[in-house]
Amino acid sequence: MTRAEIAVTGIGLVTAAGRDREATWKGVLAGTPTAGRDPRLAGLPVDFSCRVPDLDDPRHRMGGRKSWRMGRFAALAVLAAREAVRDAGFAPDAWDGARVAVVVGCGLGGTWEWEKQHRRLAARGADLVSPLAVVHFLPNMAAGEVSIDLGVRGPSLCVSTACASGATALATARDLLLRDACDIAVAGGTEACASPLTVTGFHRTGALSTRGDDVAAASRPFAADRDGFVIAEGAGVLVLERAADARARGRRPRALLAGCAATSDAHHPTAQPENAAGAERALRAALDEAGLAPADVDHVNAHGTSTRTNDRTEAALISRVLPHHPSVTAPKGVLGHTLGAAGAIEAALVTLTIHHQRVPPVANLTEPAPEFGIDCVTRRARRQRVRAAVSHSFGFGGHNAVLVLTKP
Description:
This protein is α/β, with parallel strands linked by helices. It is 33% helix and 19% strand. The protein has two domains: 6-248, Thiolase/Chalcone synthase (Peroxisomal Thiolase, Chain A, domain 1); 256-406, 3-Layer(aba) Sandwich (Peroxisomal Thiolase, Chain A, domain 1). It has helices spanning 21-30, 72-88, 111-124, 133-137, 141-150, 165-178, 196-205, 243-248, 277-290, 308-321, 332-335, 342-356; strands at residues 6-14, 36-37, 48-49, 100-105, 156-159, 184-191, 234-242, 255-264, 299-301, 327-329, 358-359, 375-376, 382-383, 388-395, 399-406. The strands form three sheets. An eleven-stranded mixed beta sheet has the order 5-4-6-7-1-8-15-14-9-10-12, sandwiched between helices. Helix 10 links the parallel strand 9 (299-301) and strand 10 (327-329).
């Protein structure tokens, strides 16, 4: 592949902190947690989540699109993609859709609809199951609906690597650009699966926080008393293009996607090995592809799920590979864990960190557990020179994905 520079020129975000890029960035920068009681989960052992504010606000309706035919996760992706494309300065009615690609990561898809339709089948019979049931829960429908909405006729792909899906989607889009399969890539991740069975399933694995007496503080990455993640929904979409193409049309890149790498642990369905060897290989490979040494890294966006094992092994990884103590943040303290969308949402936040030269704090953290020895940003955002940053994403099944983003 030709090693052209790949630029991030557009960002779209829909999260529990807000229904657009600016609201999400403001919430993350302030370190304001979004976890709250979720009436949809009433009566369950874990009855809280980080939910995107209602999409019934007229400003955020889908316009002329048939939103009723979309699962919630697909609608979130469409909204984020529209914002990203506008931010990049493109008009879909004017571009060559055959030279545009869509790649959307999604771990679970429409679990809400799956559960709803199963209840209908069990209680009322087959004739009451919606003819749109399959369309509502297929994970690939986020990419499909974004492609339809934007008139994209190039590659349209769904990537599913659990909680690494969003990051893997960006790496896949980068590869499409490098081999000239497209000129523009609309790529990211989406998830809206805080449904009763999904939440109960994660609870049964021991992955979720049970801090029901202090819900807002439940997600607390790298804290000594962390006890699990808070499930969340959201979408993050970036517009990627070759930097030379962006500059030719007068757009300055917000950041460069300088390196990507993926590895597999081949260890356990849900747990990383204690030495995080697979994650370390991904981190070193991504830096090598970017032409950077570990000492060049100014900032780390940690996967930081707030689970006991993940935070411990990730902190050890950061200390081992990046012993010069770059700043560390973990947006899941604010946004919760958006699963398949997390890698893309966090890549967008890293891009904004580079653009604004401000590092958001880790919510609910006054200082990291003393055994970690990493420089977590706490209490308030930090002004810092960030020239190169890495973003970690790790998923069930042993999926590791690392992105390197740099200042243009």
